Every structure is written in structure tokens, then in C-alpha cells.
Design the sequence.
């Protein structure tokens, strides 16, 4: 099937690649068919391109790329809607907003997208956890994670050095 898009021109979409979001996205309930397109081969970003409206496409990313501790609680009803039988079939993405200054790009961790890879069904959830908001600055999150990782590595190195000094085994 051919789809005319505003960003990519005419694209060829295999019907087996279409992801259905029966409830659409927040603000776009009428758009229920999408396809994921690579932004670049080495990029963590993808495009969630609407098949129903070629002018609508959203930049998405795995939140684990910049927030490795991100978790989403999925209800039994949501599991049923997605027809998830195995958690390994689920993929989580979040919508990214990229302003004029790309350093201020943000991700919506409050409303992630869950995709079932086996049956190509998807759903946008609303997360109740108050630590997640609609605007998390990706660069800030990466810096926080990198700083925590560096502090953890430093702490381990100090503990290891202290053990060697005391004659303790490090194994």
C-alpha cells in the first residue's frame, strides 16, 4: 500500500507492518493505523507515521535510552486490549517534542505507548506515577544518569581499593 506523507513523500507500507492503535493517541482518536519508520540507521529515534493522515507523524524513542529506571505498570485490562501473552512481546516508546533548540527536546513519560510486537496492536497509557510528567528533558535525564553511573563506578573503585588495602579479597 502506498501512503503519501508530508515528511517522507510517498512511502510503500507493507500491510503486515501496520500497527493498530484502536483508541488512537491522545488528541487524535480517529488516527488508528501507524507505521514505525527509522529516523536514521544509527539513531535511537523513530517516526510513528500515521497511515490514516500522511501529515501526522510523531518522533518516538525508547525511554530506557535516557531513563534506564523507567517502569510502567500495565493493568490487566490493558494487557487484554493488547492481547499480550508474553511481556517480551511488549515494546515501550514515548513521544518526543523537539523545539528549535534540540538541547531542550523532551519526552512524555506520563503517556507512553505500548506495542505488542506479535500482533501489531498498540495503546497509549496514562501513567499514574507522579514522578513521570509530560515533559522530561532528555539531555538533562542523560546527564543525571551519567552522573549517577559515574558516582556508582567511583564508589565501587573506592570500595575495591579499600578492600585491597585491608588485604581483603575482591572476589
Sequence:
Amino acid at each position: 500500500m502506498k501512503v503519501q506523507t508530508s515528511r517522507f513523500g510517498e512511502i510503500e507500507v507493507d500491510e503486515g507492518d501496520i500497527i493498530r492503535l484502536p483508541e488512537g493517541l491522545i488528541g487524535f482518536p480517529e488516527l488508528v493505523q501507524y507505521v514505525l519508520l527509522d529516523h536514521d540507521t544509527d539513531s535511537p529515534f523513530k517516526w510513528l507515521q500515521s497511515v490514516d493522515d500522511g501529515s501526522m507523524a510523531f518522533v518516538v524513542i525508547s525511554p530506557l535510552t535516557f531513563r534506564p529506571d523507567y517502569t510502567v505498570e500495565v493493568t490487566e485490562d490493558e494487557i487484554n486490549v493488547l492481547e499480550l501473552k508474553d511481556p517480551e512481546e511488549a515494546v515501550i516508546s514515548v513521544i518526543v517534542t523537539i523545539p528549535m533548540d534540540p538541547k531542550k527536546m523532551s519526552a512524555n513519560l506520563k503517556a507512553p505507548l505500548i506495542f505488542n510486537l506479535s500482533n501489531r496492536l498498540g495503546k497509549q497509557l496514562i501513567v499514574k506515577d507522579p514522578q513521570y510528567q509530560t515533559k522530561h528533558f532528555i539531555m538533562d535525564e542523560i546527564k543525571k544518569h551519567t552522573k549517577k553511573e559515574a558516582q556508582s563506578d567511583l564508589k565501587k573503585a573506592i570500595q575495591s581499593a579499600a578492600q585491597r588495602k585491608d588485604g581483603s579479597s575482591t572476589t
Q: What stands out?
A: Helices lie at 76-82, 138-166. The radius of gyration is 20 Å. The chain has a mean pLDDT of 88.
